[in-house]
Write the structure tokens for this entry.
Amino acid sequence: MNKATATLKKSGSSEEKDGDSPSRLIDARIEELSDWRGEMLARVRTIIKQAVPDVVEEWKWRGVPVWERAGIICTGETYKSVVKLTFAQGASLEDPSSLFNSSLDGNTRRAIDFHEGDEVDEEALKALIRGAVTLNTSKRAAARPAGSRKKASNA
């Protein structure tokens, strides 16, 4: 797959028009990078899937891998000298291991910048990912009005 095709796809659906799923597009991005950034993106992706086995992978904003469960958990962007894992609700998450090292001034998001040769604290990252899912799930539950379950029609 060439880069232009991958970046011009519309986002928001699990299955893209030409049959490339978000997971395949993420695979292609990892392969395309073919350096430490691809290895790091693949590694954090594996950690995310281990932390949340039913995570949903998406491909949004013209080529950004996104992991969701009851809302966005995080995005995985790659730059020349960093792989950035941005947590959508990071400012609301406890980070006892101090993994967040970027976007610390924002009111909502927090990010982890991984540089070439960085060690990944897998257990701390898994805890942060699970915390994001718990936060997403609790916000979704709180947004539902009491007694709003769908009832079967008696028609």
